[in-house]
Design brief:
By secondary structure, the chain is α+β, with helices and mostly antiparallel strands. The protein is built from five helices and 19 strands. Helix content is 13%, strand content 27%. The strands form six sheets. Strands 2, 5, 7, 8, 9, 11, 13 and 14 form an eight-stranded antiparallel β-sheet that branches. Strands 6-12-10 form a three-stranded antiparallel β-sheet, with no helix packed on it. Strands 1-17 form a two-stranded antiparallel ribbon.
Length: 291
């Protein structure tokens, strides 16, 4: 089901709550800091139509029950939200409800780059090429940013957010409801960029996810209809160089292989292989489990 457009109602609310720009972090595409909006900011906002209530936010803003805010200033903030549980996100129910932003050669993948983390993928394009929304959703950010240049961030109905950076032109505004495949801007090289390309990020609650886990980028196709979100999904490849001693769980009362695997974002089979255990092995309190 498509969202109904209500930008004339929402935009005065969003503009009236805009805060000062936050300093960009050291990582490329990293979090910008704490959101300037309190959880109940929408409760007291009014416009020409009337009072904007919490029920209006829940009904009209995608995944408001999950995020409890709609920050139109800070691009991403993951300082206060941790991922402890596993969730399954529906990515697609039909061929028309997803669309890769632009097909092209990946010039810089997700992962460490120049001693910093690159939280998205860079995709080659020509200046003026159209860039489209990956999924249906609502535009949360549409502005110029010193690093991302002309940038658009869209919150989607499945809880994901996607970012489109270095655009030469933006075709949508904050509060716009967009469909999958709708043009949101034109490719370019604005902001901190050395050539025409699209910087594309996928995030959940502000935490970066490698877009390659969702899309076959070269083909522009979804890899699966669902995405299983768990803590291990957000380990960036920079953690791969850490010693195994830094990835050890000390068994506590009530721990089982399955509960440890669930919390650490791995599988029982992987734990057994790393620790030379059987699936039926009994764990001892204080035992060190590598993962």
């Amino acid at each position: 089901m498509c969202l109904r457009s209500f930008r004339p109602l929402l935009l005065p609310l969003l503009l009236s709550t805009a805060g000062a720009f936050a300093q960009q972090g050291a990582d490329v595409g990293g979090p910008e800091g704490v959101t300037p909006f309190s959880e109940g900011y929408a409760d007291v906002m009014t416009d020409a139509v009337g009072v904007w209530s919490p029920a209006d936010s829940l009904r009209n803003i995608p995944c408001h029950a999950l995020y409890r805010e709609f920050d139109t200033d800070v691009i991403f903030d993951r300082s206060g939200t941790s991922i402890a549980d596993t969730a399954t996100l529906c990515l697609s129910q039909a061929a028309c409800d997803h669309h890769f932003p632009i097909c092209g050669k990946v010039t810089s993948p997700f992962g460490p780059r120049h001693r910093r983390m690159h939280y998205g993928v860079d995709i080659e394009l020509d200046r003026g090429d159209t860039v489209v929304a990956a999924f249906e959703g609502m535009v949360r950010i549409s502005r110029y940013h010193s690093q991302f240049g002309h940038v658009v961030v869209i919150r989607h109905t499945n809880g994901l957010e996607t970012l489109y950076g270095h655009l030469s032109q933006r075709s949508v505004s904050t509060g716009d409801v967009v469909e999958a495949g709708q043009v949101i801007g034109l490719g370019g090289s604005t902001g901190r960029s050395t050539g025409d390309h699209l910087h594309f990020e996928t995030r959940y609650l502000g935490h970066p996810i490698d877009p390659h886990l969702l899309f076959d980028i070269e083909e522009g196709e979804l890899r699966a209809e669902e995405l299983h979100v768990h803590p291990g999904l957000f380990r960036t490849s920079s953690a791969k160089g850490k010693s195994t001693a830094q990835r050890v769980h000390v068994v506590r009362r009530g721990d089982t292989l399955s509960s440890i695997a669930r919390r650490k974002g791995t599988s029982v089979q992987a734990l057994c292989k790393a620790n030379r255990l059987r699936t039926t092995s009994t764990l001892r309190i204080g035992q060190r489990i590598r993962y």
